[in-house]
Structure formats: C-alpha cells, structure tokens
Amino acid sequence: MVTLDGLTLKLEDVIRVAQEGEKVSISKEAWERVVRCRNRVEQMVANHETVYGVTTGFGKFSDVSISPEDVEQLQTHLIRSHACGVGPALSQDVVRAIMMLRANALAKGYSGISADTLRLLEDCLNHGVHPVIPAKGSLGASGDLAPLSHLALLLMGEGEADYQGMRMPAEQALSKAGLYPVRLKAKEGLALINGTQAITGIGALTYARAERLVRIADLIAAMTVEVLRGIPDAFDQGIQQVRPYPEQAAVAANMREILQGSKLTTRQGELRVQDAYSLRCIPQVHGAVRQVLTYVEDKLSIEINSATDNPLIFLENGKVISGGNFHGQPVAFAMDFLKIGLSELANISERRLERMVNSQLSGGLPPFLSRRPGLESGMMIPQYVAASLVSENKVLCHPSSVDSIPSSANQEDHVSMGTNAARHAKEVIENVARVLAIELIAACEAADHHGPHLLAPATRRLHDLVRETVKPLLQDRSLTPDIEHVANLLLDGVWLNQLVSQGGKT
C-alpha cells in the first residue's frame, strides 16, 4: 500500500502503483486538509466572491461572471468541452500513474476538491477502473487539460473505461466495480484538470525505464569491448580522476569490474595502441547520460509532490490566488533533456555494432557475423535497422520545449508543449532499447565466434541469459521477434534484476 499525502511520494512508489498494481491510501492528515479546503470553497460560493473558475468562466472567459445556481453546471460543461483528446489511448500503466499523481496533488489540500470526488478517484485506482485517455492534445500548460478531462469524465460516469481487460462505457465499468459517479461541485472540474500529471506520469515511467537501460548498457558495451579485443586501459582510474565527473568515474569503475577475468581484452600496443571512440569513450558518454538522469530525477521528484492547479487556496491566510503552477516548463525541459541524453546511448551503441559487423574494423570477426558470408547475410540488416532507429531519434529529439503556440484567444499565450516532449521521450527510449538489443545479439554472436568461455564472468552470465531465449544465428532467419523480445526484457529490467540477484555487476 502506498500512502498519498501530497508531500512524500517517491518515484519508486509511482512505479509500484502504475506497473505492479499496488493500491493507494490517502493519509488521515491529507483528508483533514482536503475537507478544510473544501469548506473554504463552499464559503466562497456562499459569499459570492469573484474567484477564477469558481464564479467565473475559464481562460478567455475569466471575466465572465457565473451565477450561484450555475456554478455546478459550469464544472460539468468544463469537463465535457475539454475532453477532446485524440490519437491512440495511453497505456494502462501511464493512466494509473496519471490517476495516482492527480490524487496525490489533490491530497496536498490546496485545490478545493470534495472528499467524495477524491475518494472515488482513489477507489477507481484501487479497483482497476481506468479511464481511456487519448495520448494527444495537451499543450503542457493550463494543465494537461485534454488528458485530465478524460480522467474527470470517468468520475462523472461518462466517457470510456478499461475494466478487467475490457473497454466499456465508464458508467458500466463503475457499476461493475461497485462504484458510483459523482456530480461535480464548484471548482471540482478545474481542480481535476489543472495539473501536469500527464507530462509527469509519462515522464516518471520513462525515467524508470531509462535508469534500467543505462545500467545494463554498461554490461552490453563491455561485452562488445571484449569481442572487439578492446583495451581496458582507457577505463583506468587515473584518467577519471583528472576529469572528476562522478558519473564518468562510476561508469569507468563499472567497466573495470565487469571486464575482470576476461581472456579477450588486450593491452595497449598488443593489437593496437588505442581503440576507436565508441569503445574508448564509454565512460565519458555513458557517464554523461547518467548526469542527465540525475537532473531528470530531481525535477520529477519535485513535480510529483507539487500543487499544480489554479487557483490555489491557502488556508493559513484564507487567500485564493491565481498563479501558474500548471505550466509544465520545468518538466518539459527535463523530458527534452532526457530524450537527448538517451539518444546518445543509442548513437554510440550503433557505432559499436558497426564495428562488430564490419570485417575491416572488427579485428578478425567474419563479415556481418555470418556463418557463411555471401550465402547468408547474418547481422547485415539488423545494423540497418539500428541506423534507422538512431536517425529517427534525431528527429524525435527536436526539443518540444522551445515551441509555443498561443491559445484561448491569447489569454494563454505561452505554453510548454511538455506532454509532447514526454511522449517523444517514451518513443526515443523504446528505440534505444531496440538498438541496444541489436548490439547485444550481435555481441553474443561474436562471443560465440571467439568462444563464450573466454568472456569475463559478468558478461558470460549475460550471454547465457540471452542464449536461454535467443538461439545462435546458425543460419539466416527473421530476427524481428528476437530484437523485440530482448528490447522488452531490457526495458522491463528482467535481466538486470536476475544479474543483480546473482551478484552480477551492472
């Protein structure tokens, strides 16, 4: 059970709820804050106070007064009009992350949500009633309005939901789970959709996958160093000390430890004086990618415990203040930075792959690692695929956060496009996993050529794990199933967890 209090949520908690199905519970202290804040909203309505989104319209209509008898209808219209996302539906784990993060933000007690509505959101998450949320349509400012409106529709008993593996009308899904829709009261619609939870939900899950990939990428790279008869001297501790980036030093230390016991690596001058950059500069490049992850983790950790809607209600002084915490710029920058960093992990991986399949660069490996060069093509076209994915990533890495299109008749005249950045980061990491998968499959083929017994103990364990499901390329076959299978295992951390449990170095 993960406790939501708006203050102490951790990224690993998001993963547990989103991907492992763990349930949530809102803390007693949070419920008390929610009730007190809701009482303040009821007071505003009773006193006919002019408050944005409570007794006024939204966006460009913020100067339009709403009569007391229409304040509830205003919220219903808001959700229905804003629930216009398009494109494929977000995956269930992303939807669960969004639901959890929105509940956590509301639990901070600055939004004015009612206990009944927040309780239903909590119950939907715990009962596995998931709204169908189209992936496209958010500007990443004013909140993730379109995606979160589809979440709010579920609580109203409208729209579509996924329940027990089936898609159905939301009202039917709620009924099957023994739940009942709510009628939104003053400010509740706005409280549900003003937030960065779509950006942050996608971002948190993408970060978790990136962290797994970065760790196992060192191990994959180390096997490639071995089969190319690389020179571990480049990973010497002294080199790292005179350029003291801690992440670079960590990767170099990891490489030294992984390669211990290898009978394939060479010394300076034995076969060549120095290796190509894609081998020699692994600590510098992989280390820089780890720096990116550190930055992204910091920003996500702040965002998942933030109040991001508008206006915010401050009980300590009674103020209701319109501001801009819904603007996704901090997370937009982080997502753009993440995808740029991850793309470099694939760029250098593809260059190592090229050295393995190119007989002019591989130091004696057969052309394209083919068992019968000429008659069979071996790993020729998988390298094409890796090159294609790397090129696609370069397009996806165009920063979304530098773009802004004015909306709402120029009232909302600067937006972050952070949700686009997060979606693209997710696509980038899936491409990176496939490139690393191709490198790993090729490295195993090359290791089989040399003899797997010559590998270091750490890389031999990884080789053996791969060979449990990916058979040697004794003759040409379609490698699509193998590439996708290995990529998914890398993204999910399956092999990483097995290697850690065995005492392997990652």
UniProtKB/TrEMBL annotation:
GO MF term set: histidine ammonia-lyase activity
Pfam family, one: Lyase_aromatic
Primary location: cytoplasm
Localization, UniProt: Cytoplasm
Pathway(s) served: Amino-acid degradation; L-histidine degradation into L-glutamate; N-formimidoyl-L-glutamate from L-histidine: step 1/3
Enzyme class: lyase
Keyword Ubl conjugation: no
Reactions catalysed according to its record: L-histidine = trans-urocanate + NH4(+)
Keyword Cytoplasm in annotation: yes
InterPro entries assigned to the protein according to its UniProt record, in alphabetical order: Aromatic_Lyase (IPR001106), Fumarase/histidase_N (IPR024083), HutH (IPR005921), L-Aspartase-like (IPR008948), Phe/His_NH3-lyase_AS (IPR022313)
PTM description: Contains an active site 4-methylidene-imidazol-5-one (MIO), which is formed autocatalytically by cyclization and dehydration of residues Ala-Ser-Gly.
Entry's EC annotation: 4.3.1.3
Cellular-component GO terms for this entry: cytoplasm
Any GO BP: L-histidine catabolic process to glutamate and formate
Cross-link (5-imidazolinone (Ala-Gly)): 141-143
PROSITE patterns xrefs: PAL_HISTIDASE
Domain of life: Bacteria
2,3-didehydroalanine (Ser), modified sites: 142
Keyword tags: Cytoplasm, Histidine metabolism, Lyase
The family this protein is said to belong to: Belongs to the PAL/histidase family.
Protein name per Swiss-Prot or TrEMBL: Histidine ammonia-lyase
Organism: Effusibacillus lacus
